[in-house]
Structures are given as structure tokens and as C-alpha cells.
Amino acid sequence: MVRHFLRDDDVTPEEQREILELALQLRVDRYKVQPFVGPKAVAVIFDKPSTRTRLSFSVGVAELGGYPVVIDAQTSQLGRGESVADTARVLERQVSAIVWRTFGQDCIEEMAAHSSVPVVNALTDEFHPCQILADLAAVADARGSVGALAGLDLAYVGDGANNMAHSYLLGGATAGMHVRIGSPEGYAPDAAVVARAEEIAAGTGGSVLISHSHDEAVTGADVVATDTWVSMGDEAEGDERSHAFTAFQINARTLELAAPGAHVLHCLPAYRGKEITASVLDGDQSLVWLEAEYRLHAQKALLTWLAER
Ligand code: CP
Ligand code: NVA
């Protein structure tokens, strides 16, 4: 059975550790593994804008010895209504993996259902699991080891109903972290995702806290994270969201409440003065540039791991 990576809980805690260990090794020894030498092709498809994901998968596949074929939905037949199943049937005959950024999770599940090669979620409305691998790898690197992740308090404040919040819940619980989500009323995470995260945490020693208080979420946290208040597709609600999320900004006070030396994460792109202040994003406790670099190493590790199944 081919393995896919559509959600953070598509890997077990042990498998996540293996991928993160390889990611840390690849930062030190960039060409250590080359599963796509030949070169084998990997399709990287975008239905939404991207800078980091496009860059890191393109560079990553090339560094793994392969050839990235980057496709925009707008200029392919997918954008003109060709079915996902037919697209999968064509792609699987020519590429070694399919990486896709799209809208609904149901779309990427359909691609996977029709693909004999691994399908990787490069962001959907519901999850952004490659980003969380990079975030966990960056924190592990900064704290000296992958083993250091378990037991850390990870607080995410802002839009609790978006892809990043959901992936922090599942990915953080898988890593054995205590995941706290702080969001305004009306922007809480999906109940089924919370229940799944609690189930995972019960087995890893982690825990889950869902709060409507910024202060409750971040007090004593080892890692504080946020994301844009206006995800791709939410643009029409921009003003309403900026108003609703004001009390959930990461700023100097957040760091006073968090554990001393707490690390700060943001998947980027960041909007300074909105979800995070410039002084925190650009400050000493910020891991955001290492986090962005780890998109490359973590995705190379993931693709290598999937290629070896
Ligand atoms: N963090 C992230 O996924 O960035 P892009 O949207 O630029 O790919
Ligand atoms: N939540 C954001 C993440 C961007 C990388 C979005 O979906 O737009």
C-alpha cells in the first residue's frame, strides 16, 4: 500500500521522529540522500499562491536528484474542469510523487485514492502538515534534539479554525507536546480535529487545551506561534477578522507571559503589526527564518521517507 501524507496524523509518532531526525541531518549534510536520482520527476501543483512551498519543493526535489515539474492549476486542464481522478491517472504513470496545494481536503483525498505514487499535502483549507514538520524540526534544532520536543508547551494564538491551527493540533500532539490554541469565539478549531488530537496526545504524553484567552494560551509556553489572520480565501472578511483577532496578537507582552526564552514561530508570510509585531518577528526569540529554511530539509526528509516505503 502506497503511503500518502495528507494530514499530520498520517504518520505515527515514531515515523514522525524518523522524518524529523533525517531533516536535521539534511541541514548538516544536504546531499546525504538522493532517492530521485535518474532523474525521476515529482509533480508540484498549485491551486493557490505560494513562495516558500514552491521554492522548497522545487529546490528539494532537485537536491534529491530528481526533476520538479511545477504546474499551476490556472494554466493546466485541472483549472478547466478535468477531474482529479483523471489527473491522478495521468500523473502516476510519469512521476514518482505528487505534491499538491489545493482547497478542500476532499480534493487531495480524491487524488490520493486514485494515485499509486505518494501524494503530499502542500496546504489545504484544513491542514498544512509540511509546514508543521518544518516548525517541529526548527524547534528541535534550536533545542538540540528531536527528543527535546516531547513535553514542550506549544501555544498557537489567532485563527484557531485554519489549516495551521489544525496541523499544530495533530502534529504537536504526535510529537508529545502540550498544544494550546487561543482564538476568539467563533474561530475555534474543528471539533473532530480536537478530538483526534486528544486521542493522539493520550498515547504520546501530550495534551490539548482549547481556549478563548490569549493569556491562558501563552502563559508559560515554551513555543508561541501564530499565522495570518486572513488566510487565502478569507480576503472578503479581512476587516472583520482584523477586528476579531486584535487581542490575539503576538507582541512584547506575549513574550513576558511565555516561558523565559520562549521560541516564536510564524509560517510566513507575516503581516507585521497585525498578528505579530515587527519587534517580536525580527527579535532574538524568533525562529522564523530557520523555520522557513526547514521547509526544504523537512520536505526532502519526507519525500525520501515516502520513497523508501
Ligand atoms: N508558509 C508557506 O506555506 O508559505 P507559502 O504560501 O509562500 O508557500
Ligand atoms: N493559513 C494560511 C497559511 C499560509 C501559508 C493560509 O492558508 O493562507
Automatic annotation (TrEMBL):
Its EC number is 2.1.3.3. InterPro entries: Asp/Orn_carbamoyltranf_P-bd (IPR006132), Asp/Orn_carbamoylTrfase (IPR006130), Asp/Orn_carbamoylTrfase_sf (IPR036901), Asp_carbamoyltransf_Asp/Orn-bd (IPR006131), Orn/put_carbamltrans (IPR002292), OTCase_ArgI (IPR024904). Residues 151-306 form the Aspartate/ornithine carbamoyltransferase Asp/Orn-binding domain. One of its GO terms (molecular function) is ornithine carbamoyltransferase activity. L-ornithine binds at N163, D227, S231, M232. One of its GO terms (biological process) is L-arginine biosynthetic process via ornithine. Residues 3-139 form the Aspartate/ornithine carbamoyltransferase carbamoyl-P binding domain. Keywords: Cytoplasm, Transferase. It catalyses: carbamoyl phosphate + L-ornithine = L-citrulline + phosphate + H(+). Pfam families: OTCace (PF00185), OTCace_N (PF02729). The keyword Cytoplasm applies. Pathway: Amino-acid biosynthesis; L-arginine biosynthesis; L-arginine from L-ornithine and carbamoyl phosphate: step 1/3. It is an enzyme of class 2 (transferase). PROSITE patterns: CARBAMOYLTRANSFERASE (PS00097). Carbamoyl phosphate binds at S50, T51, R52, T53, Q77, R101, H128, P129, C130, Q131, C267, L268, R295. One of its GO terms (cellular component) is cytoplasm. It is found in: Cytoplasm. HAMAP family: OTCase. PANTHER family: ORNITHINE CARBAMOYLTRANSFERASE, MITOCHONDRIAL, ORNITHINE TRANSCARBAMYLASE, MITOCHONDRIAL. Belongs to the aspartate/ornithine carbamoyltransferase superfamily. OTCase family. This is Ornithine carbamoyltransferase.
